[in-house]
């Protein structure tokens, strides 16, 4: 039994070493990847259920590694956060997204543009300046940019993060509470955060077709958010049944594979112009 246990330890040690080596090699290639054009931004449309129009997009970072193929943000964002690369990635995404919003406007589409902001970046005092600089460089109004933030810890109203969020809102930017319903501070965020939007996490949406309880939960979230004047977005809408149920429940906007996957900017533009032509 002793032998088995020590084998197990060796295995765990090797696995951890392997994991660490993998992370370091990923990090080294990430540094090159942005300059090489391996990192790019995909856009996923947000459909307004009242007007039946695409009124916004979410920017989602993509990394197509020349040998390893696509590496999902769920893998490399965490590593980027851990090794102080998140500011650089976010600058890249913001720049692309703001430019896309301005280009869309030139094409006749006035849309909001949503960008994900890692919790760690909210503690970086350089963030408001970076955003202001990018908006000014492209000439986009701050109220067209939505920062999607994920609840992590409890929201302490005397914290640096809270002060940062207030400062961002005062500068005219909009906030969205991402993955709503999954964190441990959901109600805190709704109470105290000057967010204009709530995004219901896709884990609720994917099960609401089959689970009556989840359907009721989604209904309650929509009612609660509406009573506080928040716009409600459902993410991960994959079926027509989903879409119809959310329409009945009075959800404002939907996003998901049923409407479109996140796609390169050119394809996003064809998608919206195809819908307009219909
Ligand atoms: P998120 O912000 O919650 O984004 C939603 C995720 O759901 C995206 O995964 C999107 O591609 C995926 N999705 C969209 N529609 C559907 C659907 O109908 N069904 C299903 N199953 N999934 C759908 P993705 O692009 O892999 O991103 C994963 C996470 O990585 C994001 O979750 C976000 O937290 C993070 N992320 C992505 N881009 C950035 C970025 O530029 N900066 C930061 N800090 N984080 C990012
Ligand atoms: Ca998001
Ligand atoms: Ca989300
Ligand atoms: Ca998420």
Short description:
This protein has helices at 2-36, 73-82, 86-106, 127-138, 160-170, 186-192, 202-207, 212-227, 240-248, 265-277, and strands at residues 39-48, 53-65, 69-71, 112-117, 145-150, 174-180, 197-200, 231-234, 253-254.
Task: Tell me the layout of helices and strands.
Elements: H1 2-36, E1 39-48, E2 53-65, E3 69-71, H2 73-82, H3 86-106, E4 112-117, H4 127-138, E5 145-150, H5 160-170, E6 174-180, H6 186-192, E7 197-200, H7 202-207, H8 212-227, E8 231-234, H9 240-248, E9 253-254, H10 265-277
Parallel strand pairs: 2-4, 4-5, 5-6, 6-7, 7-8, 8-9
Antiparallel strand pairs: 1-2, 1-9, 2-3
This protein binds ligand C2E and calcium ion (3 copies).
Ligand C2E binds at residues 44, 60-61, 72-74, 77, 90, 93, 116, 118, 148, 178-179, 202, 235-238, 256-257, 262.
Q: Could you please describe the fold and organization of this structure?
A:
This is Diguanylate phosphodiesterase. There is one protein chain. The protein has 10 helices and 9 strands. By secondary structure, the chain is of the alpha/beta class. It has an 8-stranded mixed barrel, surrounded by 6 helices. Helix 3 runs parallel beside helix 4. 31% of the residues are buried. The mean pLDDT is 92. The chain binds ligand C2E and calcium ion (CA) (3 copies). The site of one calcium ion has 4 residues, from loops. One calcium ion (CA) binds next to loops.
Question: How can the largest sheet be summarized?
Answer: 8 strands, mixed, barrel
- SS strand fraction: 15-25%
User: Kindly state the mean pLDDT as a whole number?
Assistant: 92
How far is the first residue's CA from the last residue's CA?
70 Å
Shape annotation? globular
Give the low-confidence spans.
Answer: none
The radius of gyration is 20 Å
Order of helices and strands: HEEEHHEHEHEHEHHEHEH
Attached small molecules? ligand C2E, calcium ion
Arrangement of strands in the largest sheet: 1-2-4-5-6-7-8-9
Fraction in helix: 40-55%
Count of helix runs:
10
- Classification by helices and strands: alpha/beta
Total number of strands: 9
Protein name: Diguanylate phosphodiesterase
Domain EAL: 23-276
Organism: Novosphingobium panipatense
């Amino acid at each position: 039994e002793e032998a088995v246990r020590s084998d197990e330890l060796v295995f765990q040690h090797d696995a951890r070493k392997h994991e660490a080596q993998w992370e370091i090699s990923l990090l080294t290639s990430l540094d090159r990847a942005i300059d090489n054009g391996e990192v790019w931004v995909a856009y996923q449309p947000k459909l307004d259920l009242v007007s039946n129009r695409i009124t916004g997009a979410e920017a989602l970072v993509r990394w197509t590694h020349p040998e390893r193929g696509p590496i999902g943000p769920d893998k490399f964002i965490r590593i980027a956060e851990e090794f102080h690369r998140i500011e650089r990635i976010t600058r890249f995404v913001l720049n692309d997204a703001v430019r896309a919003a301005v280009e869309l406007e030139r094409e006749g589409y006035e849309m909001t543009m949503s960008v994900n902001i890692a919790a760690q970046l909210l503690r970086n005092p350089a963030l408001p300046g970076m955003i202001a600089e990018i908006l000014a460089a492209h000439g986009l109004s701050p109220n067209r940019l939505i920062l999607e933030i994920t609840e992590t810890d409890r929201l302490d109203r005397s914290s640096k993060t809270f002060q940062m969020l207030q400062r961002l809102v005062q500068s005219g930017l909009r906030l969205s509470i991402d993955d709503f319903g999954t964190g441990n501070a959901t109600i805190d965020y709704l109470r105290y955060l000057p967010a204009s939007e709530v995004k219901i996490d896709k884990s609720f949406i994917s099960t609401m077709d089959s689970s009556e309880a989840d359907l009721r939960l989604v209904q309650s979230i929509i009612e609660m958010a509406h009573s506080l004047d928040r716009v409600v977005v459902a993410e991960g809408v994959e079926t027509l049944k989903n879409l119809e149920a959310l329409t009945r429940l009075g959800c404002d906007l939907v996003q998901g594979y049923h409407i479109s996957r996140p796609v390169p900017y050119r394809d996003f533009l064809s998608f919206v112009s195809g819908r307009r032509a219909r």
